[in-house]
Design a protein that fits this description.
Blueprint lengths: L15 H12 L13 H10 L16 H17 L8 H4 L4 H17 L10 H5 L5 H4 L4 H12 L2 H6 L4 H60 L8 H10 L7 H12 L1 H6 L2 H32 L2 H13 L8
Helix pairs in contact: 2-3, 11-12
Length: about 325
């Protein structure tokens, strides 16, 4: 079911925080951004969690930094998709770039698929043990350990000042206050940096979505331009009006009125572009021709029946005298 979900499905409206919480709780990781899973190793282990033993974890590289190493992980993932007959297309060239929006969309699909298999339940799956067979798997879940040790070291640093402050009570007060102030100032930048990172990620997502929307509408305008360059309709007034709007660079509202005026000056040529008008004109002309033929036949028949026998003989003699091949005696 999850292999054929559309872009408007509820799966693509799951937030980044929910996706990160699901990945970290399922695989016992400490990811802070969705794009940190761009190497493909996380995707491989998620498939291994849903289908135990299906993924060769010894081929998965959690320490992949270069694109060629990431591509190897996605090859493993594609092989698993082929075995399970999953028709989902993996856009490897976009995912390995680490763009937030592309990685978020693919991870949203992964969550939907994993939830659709056995209700998303994992049967006694040990992610840490399964990662030990992979390259860099042991260190994958320990990325937050150096940060904790650094915070412990920073709290242990002010201790020598207390032993040195026993000599003078005034020195104690002067030495303790700066330490408290430094602790407060160190906590403030950490929270502000996290907030800035979140804002940067949101801005990247919005930029990616705007770029996709821009490319979509540009492709539409390009198709219209190619159509207007068709030789059969290139010189028509309605095409000229479309080009007037298409190539305008001033974003002036009067351009639309000018284009409408160009079409209104040649209404017949504008109607000539409509296939419905052409078909209706052809039908009307053929019907009038049929009516003329039927009327002529009826008039001729009526004229023949009203002629007297003497008039018919005179007409026949006229034909014979004129040498017509229709009269043979």
């Amino acid at each position: 079911m999850a292999t054929s979900i559309g872009m408007m499905d509820s799966a693509y409206f799951v937030g980044r925080s929910e996706i990160l919480a699901w990945i970290n709780s399922t695989l016992h990781l400490n990811l802070s951004k969705v794009e940190e899973a761009c190497s493909g190793a996380v995707h491989c282990q998620l498939m291994d969690a849903v289908h135990p033993g299906m993924v060769p974890m010894h081929k998965v590289n959690f320490d992949a930094k270069n694109e060629y190493e990431m591509i190897q992980n996605y090859k493993v993932l594609q092989d698993v998709f082929n075995k399970l007959k999953i028709t989902k297309h993996i856009e490897v060239s976009k995912l390995v770039k680490g763009r937030p929006l592309d990685n978020l969309e693919f991870m949203q699909w992964m969550k939907r698929y994993c939830d659709s298999v056995n209700g998303g339940g994992l049967h006694n799956y040990n992610p840490v043990e399964r990662r030990e067979a992979s390259k860099g798997g042991k260190e994958a879940g320990k990325k937050s350990a150096p940060q904790q040790s650094s915070t412990k070291g920073s709290t242990a640093a002010p201790r020598p000042s207390s032993s040195h402050a026993r000599r003078n009570n005034n020195d104690v007060s002067s030495s303790m206050n700066p330490s408290n102030q430094s602790a407060k100032t160190s906590s403030k930048p950490s929270t502000s940096v996290a907030a800035y990172d979140e804002q940067i990620t949101e801005l990247k997502l919005s930029v990616d979505s705007l770029e996709k929307e821009r490319d979509f509408y540009f492709a539409k305008l390009r198709d219209i331009e190619i159509l207007c360059q068709t030789p059969e309709i290139e010189d028509s007034p309605i095409v000229a009006a479309i080009k007037r709007i298409l190539y305008d660079t001033d974003a002036d509202a009067s351009v639309v009125t000018e284009a409408q005026a160009m079409v209104s000056l040649h209404p017949k040529e504008a109607l000539a572009l409509s296939p419905i008008a052409e078909v209706s004109e052809e039908k009307s002309s053929s019907e009038t021709q049929k009516r003329k033929i039927i009327l002529n036949i009826d008039v001729d028949a009526a004229g023949i029946t009203t002629l007297s026998p003497r008039q018919r003989l005179s007409d026949a003699s006229d034909v014979h005298c004129s040498g017509s091949p229709l009269m043979t005696y």
